[in-house]
Amino acid sequence: MAYQKVTKTSYGGRLKNALSGVGAGFLMLIIGTVLLFWNEGRTVKTTRMLKEAQGVCVELGDPAQVNSEVNGKMVHATGYADTKDILTDGLFGISVNAVKLARSTEFYQWVEHTSTTTKDKVGGGQETVTTYTYSKEWVSSPVNSSSFEDPDYKGINNDVLLNLDDQNWQARNVSFGAYKLPEGLVSQMNKRVPVTVDLEPEVVDEYEADFHKAFDVPADKNFVHTSGNTIYLGVNPNNPTVGDVRVSYEKVLPGEVSILAVASGDTFEKFTAKNGYTLMTLQDGTVAMDEMFETERQGNKTIAWVLRVIGILLVVFGFRNIFDIITALLKVLPFLGNIAGLGVGLVAWVLGLVWSLVVIAIAWVAYRPVVGISLLVAAAALIWFLSKKSKEKAAAPAAEA
After folding, report:
1. Within this chain, do residues 328 and 380 fall inside the same structural domain, yes or no?
2. Does residue 74 sit within a domain?
3. Among 212, 267, 287, 336, which one is most buried in terms of CB atoms within 10 A?
4. How do residues 104-136 score in pLDDT, each as one tens digit?
5. Do 264 and 392 share a domain, yes or no?
6. Same domain (yes/no): 182, 330
């Protein structure tokens, strides 16, 4: 059965919270404004860096031999990234010849879920009902049950058989023909495949002995099970119990890669543009130079729009928090507060969008004047249109009278 907790907030308490929200609103407005301005500069500078890099980029040729003629130049190259390094997880004795080895862990735990409903009261008060429900799930980290709200679940046993973190190992020596790939390029190799787990008998026996000593379980019951790339710690993988652990492994094998970087002796380093922005990138497989630069440009556009949306939302909700004091004041009569809330929401979105457009336009004036001035004109037109519509609505009742 779900557990519920009822919290009542007085009218004065709501006003106090709304006043606190004003400060938070101004902070969100400032952060959103700075993010929008910075993001436009970042986008333009990255675009210019990519154009500059592509303009001077040359083909390395066969990486089987160090090409001294392109030393210090921006190059594109395709070749086989190889390593003889053995990566090992000493915890279970997993060893592979690979560029990367990744360990992921899951724990079967009691998990708390919450849902909240609020109801306004005449007089400005508010009643909040929080419902807590609990279920057993696989999660990425152990859950502290002492923080659960329901007394029946608070402090419930959520211990795990083995507490271990996710971990990644990376080869230090990765060759690229006659060249050596630097860590910054190796880290971008991410074509993962499962590692077939095959534990040594002595490793299994050691864990079995420890678990049987710690838990009252019949000797014929095994705690350690392997399947594919997963080690299951628990009595029955088909019927998990709280505390069971799943450990899985993946690896990145040597393979064909394509790179954009500056040739530096028998290795590579970042390209640094005149504006200080840098580039050193790798893609799995055989990828042409122009295709790699296009991927970088598309990635830059995606980041730009993601940050724009985040910035706009920060500005909108910043205005919403600032003006929400009006809604709180009128909540003495819930229906008035609800009407005010709709109005405040609309105003926050209009102001937020106009504000964001102006900030973006000012940023573009600094970085690309023609586009920036066009955006400022568009923002001014929007403000004029909204002002005109507002005056027309105000004049309509007077004309009818």
Report:
1. yes
2. no
3. 287
4. 999 999 999 999 888 877 777 778 889 999 999
5. no
6. no
